[in-house]
Prior knowledge:
alpha+beta
Amino acid sequence: xxxxxxxxxxxxxxxxxxxxxxxxxxxxxxxxxxxASSAIVAAMDELLFSFCQPGDALLTRYAISPVHRxxxxxxGFHPAVNERDLTDGMEQAGNVAAASVFELLSSRKTDxxxxxxxxxxxxxxxxxxxxxVEEAARAWGITLHQPPLETIRKVNAKTYSxxxxxxxxxxxxxxxxxxFADVAEAGRKLLRDGSFxxxxxxxxxxxxxxxxxxxxxxxxxxxxxxxxxxxGKRVLFLLEPFLEKEQDFSCQxxxxxxxxxxIVSVQWLANTQFAYRESLSPDRAFMERLERDGYFSLMQxxxxxxxxxxxYGDVCIDSMTLRGGKLEPIIEINARKSMxxxxxxxxxxxxxxxxRGTLTNYSxxxxxxxxxxxxxxxxxxxxxxxxxxxxxxxxxxxxxxxxVNTGGRDGENRIVGHTPVPSRNATGRGGRSSAxxxxxxxxxxxxxxxEGNGMGQPDLSGTxxxxxxxxxxxxxxxxxELVAASDEEKMRLTTKLERFLAERHFTVxx
Length: 510
């Protein structure tokens, strides 16, 4: 949403926003650490190019690969970007890995070293409102148009969603618990009717949810929380019955600062272990069903309540249909941008070409030896790369998420905390190439312009290949839009892509 039209916008954000809203004094659920996945999430902000109109700016934690800038320029996206990492030169400035992009930008003040586009007068359009936004805006002359941070935090809490469902008279509002004893008591009651979920108040996709299926499992969690409570942590969770879903979907809408609610899109979702997998467009029959069931009228009511509570901006409501046909209209409220909103942006782009696509991703184990340039050239050579002219193909949405755990890019803009592994060629594994021209489908290096997650998965960074190869393999994620005219064509394209990846020694993990 361009809240202030006809003005240059700045897009930036940290995707795991919930981590910055969460009170550090709250107890947490047991979870396996996954540093590799966290590093990938930190690099996802490059996907925000899909929102950029001519003249807009895009700041990303890690500078976008010049090869990728050339590729999206071919598609018609020409954002002004940072040519240096926001972390560049800040290795000694505390815990840089935990800092949001806004904290990094505010700490730079007005950077005399160059490599950043002109930001003064830009209207900020963040992925989500986070701490340090105001400091960054003051330092760089950025215009803010968003609610207070405390309001953003309040309406994104799972407990807020639960209370709103109760006020609207909806089913399954959940049980808000504030002690380990509450968890034990409410959990045992829920287990009488089946399994249930424990949700962190600011859990994020794939993390902060536990599916409890037995009293033994519940007792272990209660013991874990008891230990934290005795150390002074506050317990605050939402317990909900586990619902036998048929289909996840989400609704995106915007709330204007005048209170107007505009429905933007509905997207079907495919999730794995509560984590996002892909977004695809629903059929007409499903949309007609939502209209008949009063779903869109309810979304208007939700938007109006959010506005009365002080919020305006982007909203994504997670919903589902249940086995047996019932509609569960509100699972939770995400008062921010979303992956499905990014999918809508790509839908809008493709609709102008009478095409349609599916936003998906592949978690991949690889050694980083195939550069991003070589990846695109290989896709093009196989007739797989979407160029804007073909009626179908694979549209890669970024390079950094794929290479962040395999040494990142070359030394000039290396990712802090990741030691580069020497490549077999002169091009950095993220596609950085300062010495030679890159040409993909007729695009030269200058054409882009100088300003142009899942819980429980093993941490694969630093492991070795079983065949004795000493090159370290790491986990990356390739986000892409599959552009295809039909489900049959999509399946054929998927099969060809997966064969292509396997032949180049990528191992698919999801």
